[in-house]
Amino acid sequence: MAAVFGVDIGGSGIKGAPVDLTGGQLAEERHKVLTPQPSTPESVLAAVHEVVDHFGHRGPVGLTFPGVVVDGRIQTAANVSKDWIGLDAAGLFREELDLPCTVLNDADAAGLAEVRHGAGRDRSGVVLVLTFGTGIGSALFSDGVLVPNTELGHLELRGKDAERRASSAARERHELSWADWAVRVNEYLDLVEMLFSPQLIVIGGGVSRKHDKFLPHLTDRPAEVVPALLRNDAGIVGAAMAAAGSAGE
Ligand code: BGC
After folding, report:
1. If DSSP codes are grouped into helix, strand and coil, which group holds residue 224?
2. Pairwise CA distance, residues 162 & 181, whole Å
3. pLDDT in tens, 37-81
4. Which H/E stretch holds residue 139?
5. What is the pLDDT of residues 77-97, one digit of tens each?
6. Pocket of ligand 1, candidates 79, 152, 157: which has the most ligand atoms within 8 Å of its Cβ, to mutate?
7. Pocket of ligand 1 (CB under 6 A)
8. How far, in Å, is the centroid of ligand 1 from the Cα of 76?
9. In this predicted model, what pLDDT tens digit does every residue of 189-208 receive, in sequence order?
10. CA distance linking residue 232 with residue 12, whole number of Å
11. Above 90 in pLDDT, residue 16?
12. What proportions of the chain, in percent to the nearest 5, are helix, strand and coil?
């Protein structure tokens, strides 16, 4: 099969690379551009085009989106331009790139990669992958099967959208120490644990690189809590897996 390409569209950056699906890793160093502000469909389509062109890629492309995506269509956009809502993103990317395109939620993509190749590998039962970045993303698995678009970052915590209190961006916005941020993450994990009783919680997103700073501050709980292994590449790898149709194999 032709090489499969993954693109991760985030609130601050758009990054992509061809992916080695067997090893679950990037086949080349990724290329990143800043997410245009405002992140309108036109400007994001152009930025994605630039990332894919950087590699001269011809073949299937998987793309993540930081919102609910059903059958390639965008239903929510909490941290990017609301102009995306209702659009057939898969169709728009296909037209822009003239390549087969698959679009899925960013946390779902990261989760697929972690469960197949990373911290959730060979784990049965309920596994919850949470990504802490601009928002909080969630990917819920039961025996390796994903329930897409769970959106657990928008659970209510202390009367607020949980991601407003406990995302990585909230830590920066409120200039919280790692220990103080961990108090908020703990509260959030208590809530998701109460609702879903996962056996394993994988902490992903950009902040997973700094796991030594906050994991020691998290309290013991029934679920095992571990850092993501693919770090910030999980979205790219998971997007390519989805495009290759290999996600559930
Ligand atoms: C969005 C989710 C997304 C998460 C992480 C949330 O605000 O609603 O769809 O997965 O941010 O980007």
Report:
1. strand
2. 13
3. 999 999 999 999 999 999 999 999 999 999 999 999 999 999 999
4. strand 136-142
5. 999 999 999 999 999 999 999
6. 79
7. 66-68, 76, 78-79, 105-107, 131, 133, 135, 137, 151, 153, 163
8. 9
9. 999 999 999 999 999 998 99
10. 13
11. yes
12. 40, 25, 35
Q: Which domains does the chain have, with CATH numbers?
A: 4-108+233-246 (3.30.420.40), 122-229 (3.30.420.40)
Residue at 71: amino acid letter = D
Q: d(Cα 141, Cα 178) in Å, to the nearest integer?
A: 28
Quote the DSSP letter at residue 151: -
Q: Whose CA is nearest to atom 10 of ligand 1?
A: 137
Q: How confident is the model at residue 248 (pLDDT cuts 50, 70, 90)?
A: very low
Model pLDDT for residues 118-160, shown as the tens digit of each residue? 999 999 999 999 999 999 999 999 999 999 999 999 999 999 9
Nearest CA to ligand 1 atom 11: 135
- Tell me how far apart the alpha carbons of residues 215 and 206 are, in angstroms, rounded to a whole number: 14
Residue 106 pLDDT greater than 90, yes or no: yes
DSSP states along 56-113: T--S-EEEEESS-EETTEE---SSS-GGGTT-BHHHHHHHHHTS-EEEEEHHHHHHHH
Helix (H) or strand (E) holding 202: strand 200-204
Does the pLDDT at position 101 exceed 90? Answer: yes
134, 150, 152, best to mutate for ligand 1 pocket (most atoms within 8 Å of CB): 134
203/61 Cα distance (integer angstroms): 26
